[in-house]
Write a structure and sequence with these properties.
The complex is a heterodimer of chains A (117) and B (113).
Chain A lengths: L3 E4 L2 E4 L5 E7 L6 E7 L5 E8 L5 E2 L8 E7 L2 E6 L8 E8 L8 E3 L3 E5 L1
Parallel strand pairs in A: 2-11
Antiparallel strand pairs in A: 1-3, 3-8, 4-5, 4-9, 5-6, 7-8, 9-10, 9-11
Chain B lengths: L3 E4 L2 E5 L4 E7 L4 E9 L5 E8 L4 E4 L2 E6 L4 E6 L8 E9 L7 E2 L3 E6 L1
Parallel strand pairs in B: 2-11
Antiparallel strand pairs in B: 1-3, 3-8, 4-5, 4-9, 6-7, 7-8, 9-10, 9-11
Classes of the chains: A mainly beta (117), B mainly beta (113).
Chain lengths: 117, 113
């Protein structure tokens, strides 16, 4: 299957600082990218959907000013956690889909463990 | 609103046993259903993808079935091994939310040597 690379895999930051997470589709052009959040022992919760060149669509309850998403090219999307707080500590996973057809598959990155101290 | 549930939440079996993991979804209007494996602290590994027109998919010791009308899918693991220990997630792609994938809460599997 196609490869989605997420970087960094692990990051520790101080409370109040901002952290950027990158998601790259390595061998295909990602029309749509998704960002998920996963708390310990819980499932993945969709945060936002982004299409290249347009603003991201955020799920209800997700603060768009806190979780900035940029999808500037067909192979790169970034999630910036602004003014991070300890409650933002979580596992963040991105996924990318090539095309919009019904049978297209979304491929997932390996996740980023964010710890805010 | 599509909801996905998985039973059981956790399962512990001795090595060599065959086992079944269950996934249910509330809205049968889906494009596909996918099973993933997640190791602790890691990302997702796609195991099987079943399109809505299909009834089952097989890969090695894994077999996944889909009964769209009843909103159910099962993941069958034959001859379980300690290396199968992980959390298994099912996810559906609903037709009402074209781009999204909705995940279940997962089943945590432990295979005892």
């Amino acid at each position: 299957g196609a490869v989605v690379s997420q970087h960094p895999s692990r990051v520790i930051c101080k409370s109040g600082t901002s952290v950027k997470i990158e998601c790259r589709s390595l061998d295909f052009q990602a029309t749509t990218m998704f960002w998920y959040r996963q708390f310990p022992k819980q499932s993945l919760m969709l945060m936002a959907t982004s299409n290249e060149g347009s603003k991201a669509t955020y799920e209800q309850g997700v603060e768009k000013d806190k979780f900035l998403i940029n999808h500037a090219s067909l192979t790169l999307s970034t999630l910036t956690v602004t003014s991070a707080h300890p409650e933002d500590s979580s596992f963040y996973i991105c996924s990318a889909r090539e095309g919009t057809g019904a049978n297209t598959e979304a491929f997932f990155g390996q996740g980023t463990r964010l710890t805010v101290v | 609103k599509q909801e996905v549930t998985q039973i059981p939440a956790a399962l512990s079996v001795p090595e060599g046993e065959n086992l079944v993991l269950n996934c249910s979804f509330t809205d049968s209007a889906i494009y596909n259903l996918q099973w993933f494996r997640q190791d602790p602290g890691k990302g997702l590994t796609s195991l099987l993808l079943i399109q809505s027109s299909q009834r089952e998919q097989t890969s090695g010791r894994l077999n996944a079935s889909l009964d769209k009308s009843s909103g159910r899918s099962t993941l069958y693991i034959a001859a379980s091994q300690p290396g199968d220990s992980a959390t298994y997630l099912c996810a559906v792609r609903p037709k009402t939310s074209y781009d999204k994938v909705i995940f279940g809460p997962g089943t945590s599997l432990s295979v005892i040597p």
